[in-house]
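Hi all, long-time lurker, first post. I run a small reading group and we've been trying to get comfortable going from sequence to structure in the token notation. Rather than ask abstract questions, I figured I'd post a concrete chain and ask someone more experienced to write out its structure so we can walk through it together at our next meeting. Sequence below, copied exactly:
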Amino acid sequence: MKKVLIAIAVLAIIAVSGAFYYLDHVDSVDITIKTDGVNITVEADTIFFQRVPAGMEQEIGDYMADVINDPDSTVESIKKDVTDIAERYGYREVNVRIESQFGVDQLPMPAVVSGDSMYPTLKDGQDLIVLKTDRYRVGDIVIAKHPEYGLIVKRVGKIEPERVYLMSDNKKVERIYTPTSVIVRTPLNTWVPRSAIVGVVKEY
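-- Answer (accepted) --
Happy to help. Here is the structure in token form:
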């Protein structure tokens, strides 16, 4: 009889513990965002396999479709914004994970070459996939923000503590003759702050 009572008591403790565990985690969700810089899928899972609210995954997917093209977005900013979306749907504990061909929490961005300054390596209109990172080396091709030309794609020539020298692969000098002068056009080589580097071109 004692063994039966002990067994019942143990089962009761397990049941109560399980109930508390359920209450503690009923409003938690794990969100996995998978992207290769072009395609995006969103998976939201709860610990008890409850269905997520209708529209939440779609809202996160729509958000990602916009932000993936934003050179200023980061892993941290995306996780915060996705957490905010999930919290609006009633979740208090939100875990966000980004997966790409470059690894976990490695964020790719699509880009398109404009111009021929990187010819013959890159051609006008060519699609690129950029890994957003502040880790780059001399010789890497990077995307950077330029105060006059916007986003530019160049090769890293020099790296100093506060700035980076970017060079064009195309060394061709173009001369345009007018009745009164000669206009010389050379591909852009320029210094930019290290903070201006968006990421490294990984696929082209």
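A couple of things your group might point at:
The first strand starts at residue 28 and ends at 35.
DSSP finds three helices and 13 strands in the chain.
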